[in-house]
Amino acid sequence: MGKRIVIALGGNALGSTLPEQMIAVKKTAKAIADLIEDGNDVVIAHGNGPQVGMLQKAMAELTRAEPDKYIPCPLSVCVAMSQGYIGYDLQNALREELLDRGIHKGVSTVLTQVEVDPKDPAFDHPTKPIGAFMTKEEADRLVAERGYDVVEDAGRGYRRVVASPMPQSIVEIESIRDMVDAGLVVVACGGGGIPVFRTEGHHLKGAAAVIDKDFASCVLAESLDADALIILTAVEKVAVHYGKPDQQWLDDLTPEAAEQYAAAGEFAPGSMLPKVQAAVRFARSAPGRTALITLLEKARDGIAGRTGTRIHS
Ligand code: ADP
Ligand code: MG
User: Fold this and answer.
1) Which of 10, 11, 47, 191 is catalytic?
2) Residues 6+ positions from 109 with CB-CB distance below 8 Å
3) 48 is catalytic
4) CB of 233 closer than 6 A to ligand 1?
């Protein structure tokens, strides 16, 4: 019996440059097509760190070169551009791989906005550095003129920092659900989604923030009533004592056990910790839901229970 699966793709599924991404998506498409061939409904979310960094830097250079013509590009617009560009490569690679296997299924990317709470405590302590390094003068000007938050980064210069608030809800969820129900393969919530605030009336305003893609994928999986959330990354399994001589790979974990390990500091913040936290939240959200963390090329084996770390009640 096919399952409804939300896949969260990590950085290694996309590479860091234009040519790298073009090559990486071919391998990524094979792993995803395996799951579709097995009869599962698949929804794909992905990160965008290097891509949004590139776009943000390019737009900043444009403003620097022609300040009278181009105002700074909002971060939310850069995230939207990254969703379009990554979705373009992903949906083409997947379309080709499916057709090569004789599978006729539409593949579409949904530009996805994700609502965040303006009162989220993350806005009081922006932590995510984005964009290029700046001189003190450049940084001071952005603070004065645009109210940016900047930090001095280990002697290498100044960088803008933004908040990483928790995703609350997905604005385009009904469109995504209808498309999945109709049998389409959907790419959504790229880069964690375009962060937006709800303002007066029905207006949505882009937020200068980045949403963690693992948490956004969890909200997507919950909202679609998915059976499984698969977080594909650069390790086959989650470990305790990671990178130490007594390292131990984990196979099956209850949400409670995972939380205990997290509290003991077993998972690095900013890399493995958000994945485990998202997995725990999804596993707890309804009976029968399983989260899996594994390598891209092990997705099929992982969902069959042969490898990876599974978190379920
Ligand atoms: P992604 O781009 O897929 O989000 P990240 O680099 O953010 O990838 O997170 C995955 C990385 O987390 C792994 O490559 C690994 O180096 C690191 N990591 C940190 N702690 C652990 C742990 N306890 N077990 C396994 N991997 C860990
Ligand atoms: Mg990550």
Assistant:
1) 11
2) 83, 84, 87, 88, 90, 91, 186, 187, 188, 190
3) no
4) yes
* Closest to 16 measured CA to CA, from 50, 48, 54, 49: 50
User: Does 16 contact ligand 1 (Cβ within 6 A)?
Assistant: no
Q: What is the pLDDT along the chain (313 residues), one digit of tens a residue?
A: 799 999 999 999 999 999 999 999 999 999 999 999 999 999 999 999 999 999 999 999 999 899 999 998 999 999 999 999 999 999 999 999 999 999 999 999 999 999 999 999 999 999 888 877 889 998 999 899 888 999 987 778 898 899 999 999 999 999 999 999 999 999 999 999 999 999 999 999 999 999 999 999 999 999 999 999 999 999 999 999 999 999 999 999 999 999 999 999 999 998 999 999 999 999 999 999 999 999 999 999 999 999 999 999 9
The stretches of 131-289 forming alpha helices (DSSP H) are: 136-146, 173-181, 213-223, 255-263, 272-285
Helix, strand or coil, per DSSP, at residue 274: helix
Residues in contact with 99: Cβ distance below 8 Å, sequence separation at least 6, in sequence order? none
- φ/ψ (deg, to 5) at 63: -65, -40
Task: Please pick, among 40, 47, 48, 275, the residue that the annotation labels catalytic.
Answer: 275
Distance CA 195, CA 205 (A): 8
Write the residue with the smallest CA distance to atom 27 of ligand 1: 272
Please name the residue that has the structure tokens 């909202």.
223
- For 179, which DSSP code? H
